[in-house]
Amino acid sequence: MNAAVKDTPLVERQLGPIEIFYGLDHGKYPQGNSFIVRGEQRSILIDPSLGLVARKPHQPMADTVLYSHSHEDHLAGAHLYADKPCHIHRQDASGLQSLAGLLDIFGLSGDGHEAFIESLHSKYHYQPRADVQCFENGDIFDLGGVSIEVIHTPGHTAGHCCFLVTWGPSAAERLVYLGDIDLTGFGPYYGDPASSLKAFEQSMEKLRHIDAQYWLTFHHKGLIENRETFLQMLDGFEQVIANREQRLLDFISSPKTMAQIVDYRIVYRPNTGDTMVAAIEQRSAQMHLDRLIAAGVVTQQGSYYCTS
After folding, report:
1. What distances in angstroms separate CA 239 from CA 53, 157, 188, 243, 307, one per listed residue?
2. CATH assignment of 3-239, given 3.30.200.20, 3.40.250.10, 3.40.50.1220, 3.60.15.10?
3. Distance, CA of 91 to CA of 227 (rounded, Å)
4. What percent of the chain has pLDDT over 70?
5. What is residue 84's DSSP assignment?
6. What is the DSSP string of 111-129?
7. What is this structure's pTM?
8. Least C-beta-crowded within 10 Å: which of 15, 159, 168, 222?
9. Ranges of each domain in the chain
10. Do the beta carbons of residue 300 and residue 256 sit within 8 Å?
């Protein structure tokens, strides 16, 4: 490893046929934790991140690359494997197929996004893959003595997927890669146009019923080594949704417009972010408001929202 990389806190962790490559600062965004699974017949890399870019030219070799979803931090090392077959869920494929497709996933159109587009190229090394292949929920990649099963977990994006890696008959030989169901204190992100609060909650419920010993997040938490700890962390992660909703209800106890709600910030910290963050806040708040209105808890009168 060259001196520049040696002096950075990049670490690996071996777990059966899995090798985890942690990003800087425990995979804090925009860094992430990538991993490779090696079977008797082939190897598959999951979500090549900036952590792999930092390891260049010592990144792991792989036969195939899988992506959990089309967000810039999960695609940042894709250019290192431009000659390898790659797969993603069909509902997120457009983000790999073209820059326009990726911008659509973020809900960006028109002018005013030049800085973000520049960062996609300069920071995240974006390169389109028109040849990307699509998988579906339940598809299994057989590596020879090791398998990777696709678990479609929409909500974060429409095509977000987790992966169940199995290398033996017991739960102690199973790992679930959680992607951006990352169990952080920030909480679930459902701010893209195709995101869904309801689907995110359903995806978390689905994960509760998987019997596995190990759980791996792309950001922050990294490897979780028992199911009980995972379930406790998932409880805390999901609680953030309820906390946001309660803050929203408290704020609109007197009538508020959407512009006021966006400025108040139920997802990000107050007085932070740009127009992209404002759009995320609006989409997120609208999901909460829609279901609160359906439940009869909130009413809308003209441009104002208020608790019933």
Report:
1. 34, 20, 10, 6, 21
2. 3.60.15.10
3. 29
4. 97
5. S
6. SS-HHHHHHHHHTT-----
7. 0.95
8. 168
9. 3-239, 252-307
10. no
